[in-house]
Amino acid sequence: MEINYIEKIIENYISDKVNKSIKEKFIEAAVHFNISSSICTKNDLMRIDYRFKNIKDLNVYQIFKIYSVYSYILYRAVEVGSIRGEDRLEVSQSVLSISTLITGYATMKYDDADIILGFTDEAIKLGISKEFNDKIRTKLDLC
């Protein structure tokens, strides 16, 4: 995959479609998009509620939100054909992996270290840099 190719898709989507007035709702919708509620039990839903009320590490929470946004945007990019043919499978696999991490974290199957490691692995596969994460964190007002 071309360096910064995925970063450009994400950044352009945010610049074009996520204005200041909808940022919070967009982030919330991206989180909900990633949590596979169809496989969640009633107990999972209670754990999700508990997890979000008790996140202590702001950095983890910000990264969680950022990767929720990435997953949603990349899913949409695959759907509309913005991802090149040879990259579609790899990006789709990363979207699924990120969604699994998000659902697992929200339902308390994974801890902070698990999702940071998982997100780092997916970032490497997608060519997403720490600097880009910081840039998006600022664009989404997560600082």
Shape estimate: globular
The main pleated sheet reads as: none
Strand content: under 5%
Number of helices: 7
**String of helices and strands:** HHHHHHH
Q: Can you describe what's shown?
A:
With 143 residues, the protein is mainly alpha-helical. It has one domain (5-139). The chain is built from seven helices and no strands. It has helices spanning 5-17, 23-34, 42-53, 58-80, 85-106, 112-126, 130-139. Helix 4 (58-80) packs antiparallel against helix 5 (85-106) and helix 5 (85-106) runs antiparallel to helix 6 (112-126). The protein is globular. The mean pLDDT is 88.
What characteristics describe this protein?
143 residues; mainly alpha; 0% strand; globular
